[in-house]
Automatic annotation (TrEMBL):
This is NUDIX hydrolase. It comes from the Bacteria. Residues 4-139 form the Nudix hydrolase domain. PANTHER family: ADP-RIBOSE PYROPHOSPHATASE YJHB-RELATED, GDP-MANNOSE MANNOSYL HYDROLASE. Keywords: Hydrolase. GO terms for molecular function: hydrolase activity. PROSITE patterns: NUDIX (PS51462), NUDIX_BOX (PS00893). SUPFAM superfamilies: Nudix. Its cofactor is Mg(2+). Belongs to the Nudix hydrolase family.
Amino acid sequence: MHKELRVAAYAVCVRDGRLLMARWVAGDGTRRWTLPGGGMEHGEDPYDTVVREAEEETGYAVEPVALLGLDSVRRAYPRRLGTHADFHGLRILYEARVTGGELRHETDGSTDRAAWHPLEAVPALPRVGLVDAGLRLWRERPPTGKPAAT
């Protein structure tokens, strides 16, 4: 089985009771809301990754103000020629604030929209699990960077 590790950094931007989100477009065309962010480039610092990715996906300049924690996900998926991959995603989550720029949609990227959503409306949105993990870290602020088991 092919092993695949992806390290990424994401921003949890909450302002006036609203969460900044980007709508991710999966390979099959499914669209779900996610946090602004994405994969680290080789040699890139995670802080720089979240700043770069947030600007690419939302048009905003952001400043990470706190490291909220880490989220780790693992899943298997089929690959070409009947093989399988063992995927491990390590997601670094920062609380961030908008410092400039203007809201806009990404073009030619993995997302197609950017928007602010009221926090109370987020549970009804089609979204990836990362959104819930990020909001939980933002609300609970566990000292270890990992929420208590539920």
